[in-house]
Structure formats: C-alpha cells, structure tokens
Amino acid sequence: MNFGLRPMRLDDIAQVAEIEREAFPTTWPPTPFKKELQNRLANYLVTWIPAGQQASALRPSQSGDPVTESRHMLQRLMTGVRGLFSSSPGGHSEAGDFVAGYEGIWFMADEAHVVAIGVKSAYQRMGLGELLMQGGVELSIARRMRSMTLEARVSNAPAHALYEKYGFRKVGVRKSYYADNKEDAVIMTAENILSSAYQEMFESRVEVYRQRRGEVNRILA
C-alpha cells in the first residue's frame, strides 16, 4: 500500500478541513482542528502519501473500504498487540504530504469515542477507512480504554459491516441525529478491548489486512 498512517499535524489542517467539508457537509460549526490537536483527551490520525504520488495511488478497481461517516504507545502496546504495526524510519514524511483521510477520537474515562472517520471520495474503497479504524483501536488500547463507541447512519450498512468486523455491536439509536435529513444514528460499541480475546481477534484482522494490502508505515505516537 502506498499510504501511511500517522498523527495529524498542524500543517495537515487545511487538507483535513477539506475532507470534513466533503464527508460531513452539514457539520456546523466546522471542527476547530487546531484546538483539537492541543486537546490531551483527543487524538487525530491521518492517512497520507508524499505529495505528487497521489495520482499513482488511485486504484479504482480496488474495493473494501465503505467508510465515510475521529508518549510512546505504552511500550508499543502491551502484550496482546505488541508489534502489530511497523514504524520504519521512512514512514513519517517531513512536509508536503497529501492527506486522503482522517480519524478523530475522544477519550473519556475508560471509553474511546470515535467522533469522525472521513476519506476523500476519490480514495474510498482502498482500505483507508479500515486502516484508520485499526489505528484508532491501537491508540485506544494504548490509552487503556475498556471500550470504544461510535455513531453511524442507520442506512450505512457497509460501514456497519466494517465496524462489526472489529468487534462493534449495535447497542442503541439516536433519533434524528443527522441534521441534513434527520436520519437516525445507530450507536455501536466494542467492549472489553483490553481482553486477550479481543486483542487476538484484532491481531488476526490486522494480519488479513496486511496480507491483502501489503505493509503500511504506521506511526501512531
């Protein structure tokens, strides 16, 4: 895979704001990303590629990413997921990165809340939403969260399937949650993400992804 995964930086804000406008056109006011990057209770990740290479990364025939709906990693994560993500020195480009997707996560008590996953429309169905989801799970485990939760449109069955793949289950509904058409949101939660059973499942999903998509430079802290 040509894309990498890393924490969002200040110089990514303009591109991430553009993705937010495309993916969530009814969001108002816009997310104050500069403030969010200074928030100790939040993390934002981006999928990126060095500028100028984005055209070569487009693979319209690929499928598999249905999503457009957020200190050193505890010694690279505890035992269950240690070593899942490589972080080669070349993975973190200095400047001029092209950002194709982002995820925002808030951490509250022992629960991680995924507030946004957005991918540019031209780069959907390339596995980037799943890559972001994997990064969000790893960050949540590293921060010792016991569960993760998110909302998705009730009509977005492909997104539900992806989230269920990573252990999320439907636990409720928020009525008229989306401002554009008053559509309900389904609440989905992944419980006990610190358990060995969950981490074994997660590791197996990451391995399948790696075999299908190839190695990815992942730097999460």
The average pLDDT value, as a whole number, equals 86
CATH topology name: Aminopeptidase
How do the strands line up in the largest sheet? 1-2-3-4-5-7-6
Tell me which CATH architecture applies here: 3-Layer(aba) Sandwich
What is the succession of H and E elements? Answer: EHHEHHEEHEHEEH
Strand content: 15-25%
Low-confidence stretches: 60-64, 68-94
The value of Rg in angstroms is: 16 Å
* Major β-sheet profile: 7 strands, mixed
Taken together, the total number of domains comes to 1
Query: What is the count of β-strands?
Result: 7
Number of helices: 7
Helix/strand structural class: alpha+beta
Please name the fourth-level CATH homologous superfamily: Gcn5-related N-acetyltransferase (GNAT)
State the distance separating the first and last CA atoms: 21 Å
The coarse silhouette is globular
**The top level CATH class name:** Alpha Beta
Structure, described:
The protein has helices at 13-23, 33-37, 54-57, 73-81, 128-142, 157-165, 196-213; strands at residues 4-7, 42-50, 97-108, 111-119, 147-153, 169-174, 185-190. A seven-stranded mixed beta sheet has the order 1-2-3-4-5-7-6. It is α+β, with helices and mostly antiparallel strands. The protein has one domain (4-213): Gcn5-related N-acetyltransferase (GNAT) (Aminopeptidase). The longest helix has 18 residues, at 196-213.
